[in-house]
Amino acid sequence: MTRFLDLVRPAAGTALMSEWLTGTTERSRSAADALMDEWAAAKTPSGRLAQHIFLSTDGTGLLFYAQWSSDEDHLAWARAHRAGAVSRVDTLVPGIERPGLVRTRLTRSIVHDAERPAGLFVVSTMAVDDVNATVPPTPGLLAEHVHLTSDGERATVVAEWNDAASHEAAATGGLSHKRYTLYRSLSDDRP
Length: 191
Known about the structure:
This protein has about 190 residues and is α+β, with helices and mostly antiparallel strands. Helices cover about 25% and strands about 40% of the residues.
């Protein structure tokens, strides 16, 4: 599986995360494929650097991870084009729940093992003060990528694990997390 740092675009001024709750693996894949097809067929928006879709391991939802040069570039595109792209997906897969978009910036990555492939991405959201209480280096934990929200109050940590069994063995109570695998990616490679 692709490692998270392979997806990161250094020019990104913002990283947007959005969860879509679809209910089933089939609906998740249909929604992801429809949206990625929309993105691939449309004119590349100014400022969009990459779009990645992660499928929850239980199949009930998707996590979108988009990188843009700035929030302003994303907002300009969203005002002009988001409704059309999303309405076409909603026609194919009605009833998707979208809890909201979170604007973040990748602030640091801690790589424990750069060699082994990632088999699982675990996404946790917490108060900024709790970031240092994330999982310490442990067998199977490959890396942690800390994103801070634009208001600086919340953090989203994307942890790469070698496999689900390693994550299960290290999982601690009280920390809310969701498990994903990379499903599809679209990058705009520009100089």
